[in-house]
Amino acid sequence: MGNYRKLWFTLIGVLIVTFSLLGYYGAEVYRTAPPIPAKIATAGGEVLFTHDSILDGQTAWQSVGGMQLGSIWGHGAYQAPDWTADWLHRELLNWLDVAAERAHGKPFAELDAAAQAVLRDRMKTEYRTNTYSPETGVATVSSVRADAIAMTALYYDQLFSDVPALHKTREHFAMKENTLPSPERRAQMTGFFFWTAWAAATERPGTTATYTNNWPHEPLVGNKPTAENMVWSVMSVVVMMAGVGFLVWGWAFLRKHEEVEPTPPQHDPLSRVPLTPSQRGLGKYLFLIVALFSFQVLLGGFTAHYTVEGQQFYGINVSQWFPYSLVRTWHIQSALFWIATGFLAAGLFLAPLINGGKDPAYQKLGVDILFWALVVVVVGSFVGNYLAIAQIMPPEWNFWLGHQGYEYVDLGRLWQIGKFTGIAFWLVLMLRGIVPALRTPGGDKNLLALLTASVVAIGLFYGAGFFYGERTHLSVMEYWRWWVVHLWVEGFFEVFATTALAFIFSTLGLVSPRMATAASLASASLFMLGGVPGTFHHLYFSGTTTPVMAVGASFSALEVVPLVVLGHEAWEHWRLQHRAKWMANLKWPLMCFVAVAFWNMLGAGVFGFMINPPIALYYLQGLNTTPVHAHAALFGVYGFLALGFTLLVLRYIRPQLVFSEWLMKTGFWWLNAGLVLMIATSLLPIGLFQFHASVSEGLWYARGEAFMQQPFMQTLRWVRTFGDVVFIVGALAMAWQVVSGLFGSRAPAQAGPYLAQARR
Predict the structure, then answer these.
(1) Beta strands at 138-141 and 47-50: parallel, antiparallel or unpaired
(2) Which of 132, 406, 407, 709 has the most CB within a 10 Å radius?
(3) Of 471-485, 589-603, 610-624, minimum mean pLDDT range
(4) Which residues contact 562 (CB under 8 A, 6 or more apart)?
(5) pLDDT tens digits for 742-756?
């Protein structure tokens, strides 16, 4: 540890404390998850649903795309309704009509105000009262509610079939005709939807809040923010402000001002190291990255168009072959594949450099095997997604080969195992280059040790996705799913990126090894402090209790803290290109890293904290404010990181290449401009209008057909086309630069004044 003892102990202490919190309250998630009753029955003994039929309904929902078609408990896609909120509201309206007919012989709307108030009060009492008996496993409902459930189930049965009366609604929800052909499976799915709504309306024993902490906002049943929600929302803001304050004080008083920047070498050190066979073999990785990137971006435009023409693409009915749920699945999965491949390629490029400029035995063979394994997983998972959503695949195969139904981990379990195996194999390839360097006596190995730790974490933590199965309780599944989506991606990939960049810049002689090591260790501590227990901020309303909300709100607020100094990081990356003449050849990778700092601040920081406090997320969960954060953070941060790594690796494995200024300016600036336009002119305005509707009426209305199909909302969705087109042009320019760089026969004539010097 040497001179970095305090920083190492700080990081180790942070990891011990934060993972202890994540594990302890993870056990709380298991213990307090909403029960799935053995039976849902009337007082007369009529069984409506059973434990097994509810779980069968969960698997049926997974097979149609799950979270890629509407959402459950606020998690999923945004065109179709949130099925929990929608079911609950429809069932409540049906209850009022059934009760009014029984008590007064006429519909609820025809009653006077006094009679309506009496029925509303009866309904609220009935729905919030917990009739579940742990001893018998039975939850009892009244005969009135049983009739309301049957009426609601009939609507859903027709919606997911091809009944002509609901054709227009299916168009508005971007659902294909006959989404779930089997009547039996449709009936089972309605049981699953009912159970999610039951948990959202039924008070947890010993409390006055429902199992989902009174989410969603539903005035008819008395769902409104809890006192704990308000308290921990305020506390999250206080913690965030305190964290920023302490960071500024630490920055001012603890930072070493006397650090002297090293004198850059006369020539690019990496360009003078001969390429190894495994590094030369990385070209196909870069091609796969931009191929998937282009595919993902084009699919993004295609998917967005479904929000205005729910079953068509400019008049062509394509939903029967490529429905919204499928193309959205592919859009998200291809993003994860190409971004992850960008990180893998960067690591494989560094491994021989760490190993003294030489390949371990059979490293090239390992790199080739890993590439083709990635191709198999990508193609296999995409084909499985198609067969599942088309309802061609047998239901019993769906989870394993088709579609898991859970956003960001949609690929079938077999392909998920293949992906984990590939990442683990990458870990082995990396360690074969790193371990000998760690064993070499002499030198400062601290930065390399941190890089090694981040590589191991990336290789192993994806395995958290195996801790749930096809019929695992939804709350438990959400806990482990966010280990992958939040902790693996937003935590360990962030540490790897920071450390890898520090290693590269110190190797280039642009920053001192001491400064690179200290900055990386400090950054890792800051990322992990908020990021690990901050995983719980995704679980406020997923059937968890107040302690989970408290931990998630407090620690996730700290995720914003390191982002306030990213303007300085952006400046540092920008000025690196002026430290030496040969750095002009690395201008565009550096520009991508500058963009990462900007979008980390805006997308992860501002837009992330916008939906982070419990009171904000109570109204915003499941609205278009979430894709504002998702697009700005996933592409803005990790996308630009992967593109920066891609350009950096390309620059060195094709030493004669000089980036085309025209292509790179078009690619870089149009990507950024397209992302800004997409957010500012469409996603954010839609989300803010929905926010008002959610607060004033309820989530069911903010996501409902009547609100979302208003002309001005349709116009806002059409406006997104402009941003999408700009973004697509930038993506294709970036992709063409990589492809032409890989396959071009010679450097362009306008090579630039420093090319000859860089080659010497």
Answers:
(1) unpaired
(2) 406
(3) 589-603
(4) 247, 523, 526, 527, 530
(5) 998 444 433 333 333
pTM: 0.94
The values of phi and psi at residue 746, to 5°, are -155, 165
What's the start-to-end Cα distance of the chain, in Å?
38
CA 480 centroid distance within chain: 13
Task: Please report the DSSP string for 656-672 in residue order.
Answer: T----HHHHHHHHHHHH
Average model confidence (pLDDT) across the chain: 92
Distance CA 656, CA 755 (A): 8
Within 10 angstroms of residue 155's Cβ, the number of other Cβ atoms is 18
Give the helix, strand, coil percentages of the chain, each rounded to 5: 70, 5, 25
Burial label, 695 (beta-carbon count in 10 A; 0-12, 13-18, 19+): middle
From the CB of residue 714, how many other CB atoms can be counted at a distance below 10 Å? 13
- Predicted local distance difference test score (pLDDT) of residue 758: 39
Contacts of 530 (CB under 8 A, 6+ apart): 243, 555, 556, 557, 558, 559, 560, 561, 562
Q: Can you give 706-740 as a three-state secondary structure string?
A: HHHCCHHHHHHHHHHHHHHHHHHHHHHHHHHHHHH
Q: Closest by alpha carbon to 211, among 541, 499, 521? A: 541
Q: What angle do CA 217, 222, 227 make, to 5 degrees?
A: 75
Q: Give dist(CA 355, CA 205) in Å, integer.
A: 59
Please report which confidence band the pLDDT of residue 566 belongs to, taking 50, 70 and 90 as the band edges.
Answer: low
Give the DSSP letter string of 384-405.
HHHHHHTT-S-GGGIIIIIB--
The residue type of 694 is S
Mean pLDDT, to the nearest integer, of 551-576?
A: 77
Residue whose token pair is 């006055």:
208
Starting from the edge strand earliest in sequence, which strands make up the sheet with 47-50, in order? 47-50, 39-42, 138-141, 132-133
Q: What is the spatial distance between Cα 483 and Cα 171, in angstroms, rounded to a whole number?
A: 35
What single-letter amino acid sits at 745? S
Torsion angles phi and psi, residue 223, rounded to 5: -80, 110
Q: Which tens digits make up the pLDDT trace of 18-34?
A: 999 999 999 999 999 99
Structure tokens at 488: 């693996």
Q: Return d(Cα 720, Cα 728) in angstroms, integer.
A: 12
In this predicted structure, what is the pLDDT of residue 513? 84
Residues 536 and 486: their CA atoms lie apart, in Å, by 10
CB 168 within 8 A of CB 179: no
Q: Which residues of 567-593 are buried (b: 16+ CB within 10 A; e: fewer)?
A: eebbebbeebbebbbbbbbbbbbbbbb
The answer to whether 206 touches 534, Cβ cutoff 8 Å, is no
Residue pair 473/55 in contact (Cβ under 8 Å)? The answer is: no
Tally of CB atoms within 10 A around 361: 8
What 3-state DSSP class applies to 223? strand
